[in-house]
Amino acid sequence: MHEAEAKSLLTRWGSMNLYRGCTHGCVYCDSRSRCYHFSHPFEDIEVKRNAPELLERLLRTKRKRIMIGTGSMSDPYQPCEDVYGLTRKSLALIDRYGFGATVITKSDRVLRDIDLFDSINRKAKSVLQMSLTAADDMLSRILEPNVCTTSRRYAVLKEFQSRGIPTVVWMMPLLPFLTDTEDNFEALMTYCIDAGVKGVICFHIGMTLRDGNREYYYAALDKHFPGLREKYRDMYGNKYELISSNSGRLMARFHQLCEEHGILHDPEECFAYLREFPEENSQLSLF
């Protein structure tokens, strides 16, 4: 880890990253791609130590309340959060100033802050977003070695469900020849349905590979699944989007199941829900 002073924090869409880089070790991670221009090793986490101060300055002066999100590039609940607590400090500020919050994570560390999610959701709106990729925990430990297993994430979703805090699942990527099977898909959807998720984001059955994460992914295949790299090369070459041969059939099933259980499944509808701030709650809180 190393500390840095951030000059800015929030994007115009209300998104922020408190840390830069990740130690989860997910073999498919797009964030390690060269296009993001990391100036330090990906696992050497850059800690934006002044992030809470920047956030409070912005929230204090912002006239319109919005949803504040974090986790799109770097998980806000990595082990470094135990040391710096930037995520908890930020959630506490969001709670204090009456804004909404949503985080994307794979970590059960998020349970530490469920009190803040609860408080924010009562006053405005909070949403937990979690990634689910491999229903089989043994496979999950290979693909996502330094973070809790999928079954544990399901337990986290259930805990948020019990508090009435909405959740959205990113069911992606689904890796060709590994997690793009009907069994894996059905198991993940069973988790989502039982946990009462508000929405599931899944663009297609497949994954993306760019320079930087392609090399890392293929090295992991060579280590854990010898010979599989060649199947990828034969089928996809150097394509960016690697669409599974099962995509059409499984996506049809995906939309069917979501419709049957009242789950948002169009990505744009999911994103609109995540951005939507409940103005009526905001107005009531003024009196």
Instruction: Please list the strands of the largest sheet in the order they lie side by side.
Output: 2-5-6-7-8-9
Helix-strand topology string: EEEEHEHHEHEHHEHEEHHEHHH
- Average pLDDT confidence is 94
Number of strands: 11
What is the CA-atom radius of gyration, in angstroms?
A: 19 Å
End-to-end distance: 44 Å
- Output the number of helix runs: 12
Write down the overall geometry: globular
State the share of residues found in helices, binned by percent: 40-55%
- Roughly what fraction of the amino acids lie in strands? 5-15%
Structural class: alpha/beta
Biggest sheet statistics: 6 strands, parallel
User: Residue ranges: pLDDT <50 for 5 or more in a row?
Assistant: 281-287
Could you characterize what this model shows?
The chain has 287 residues and is an alpha/beta fold. The chain is 43% helix and 14% strand. It is built from twelve helices and eleven strands. The chain has a six-stranded parallel sheet, with helices on both faces. It has a three-stranded mixed sheet with strand order 1-4-3, with no helix packed on it. Strand 6 (100-105), helix 4 (114-123) and strand 7 form a beta-alpha-beta unit.
List the helices and strands and how they pair.
Blueprint: E1 2-4, E2 15-16, E3 19-20, E4 46-48, H1 51-61, E5 67-70, H2 80-84, H3 86-97, E6 100-105, H4 114-123, E7 126-131, H5 137-143, H6 150-162, E8 167-170, H7 182-194, E9 199-201, E10 206-208, H8 213-224, H9 228-236, E11 241-243, H10 247-261, H11 267-275, H12 279-284
Parallel strand pairs: 1-4, 2-5, 5-6, 6-7, 7-8, 8-9
Antiparallel strand pairs: 3-4, 10-11
Helix pairs in contact: 1-3, 3-4, 7-10
